[in-house]
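Why BHLH domain-containing protein? Reviewers of the renewal asked for a concrete example.
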Amino acid sequence: CFPAVVLGSRGRQQKLLASGKRENSNDDDKKKSMHRDIQRQRRQELAILYASLRNLLPPNYIRGKRSISDQVDGAVSYIMYLKKRIDGLSGKRDELKNVRGNSSGFHQGMSMSCIEAFPSSVVVRQSVDGVEIVISDSVGAQALTLSKVLQQLLEEGLDVVNCVSSRTDAVKAH
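Here is what the prediction returned.
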C-alpha cells in the first residue's frame, strides 16, 4: 500500500493517500475530537468548582476578579484562619469546663443552699438551629449579668437570635 504518485499538468507531483492511510486519518481525527471534548468538559467542571469555592469564601479573602491560583491561596488562608479560631475556641471551651468543674448546672430540684453555693451556672447545648445557652443565676448574685453574656457572645462573632428570661422565687433563667 504505497501512495500513488500522479504528475500534474505543470510537472508537480501530487501524492494520493492509499485507502489504509485514509482510515487511520479518520481514526486520528475521531481521537483528537474526543480528546478535545473531554478536555472541554473537564475545564467546564473545574470552572464550576472554582466558582463554588469563590462563593464559599468571605469577600475579604477574594478582592476583585483574581486568578484561580489567587483564589486557591485565599481559600488556604481562610482555612488556616478558621483552624486557628477553632483551636482558640477549643482552648476557651476547655478552660470553661475546668472552671465549671463538676457542677452539673441548674436543676429545678436544687435546694436553696446549693443555689447559693453555685450562684451562676451556664449550660451550652448543640441544637438543631445552632447553639442553645441556658444561664441560671440566683437573684442576689451580681457576678454574671445577661448584658455581659450578650456582649461576650457578640465579641466572639456569634449572633443572638432569641433571648427569653424568666424569674422564679430564687432563680433567674435566661
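Residues 9-14, 102-118 have pLDDT under 50 and may be disordered. This is the kind of structural detail the renewal will allow us to pursue systematically.
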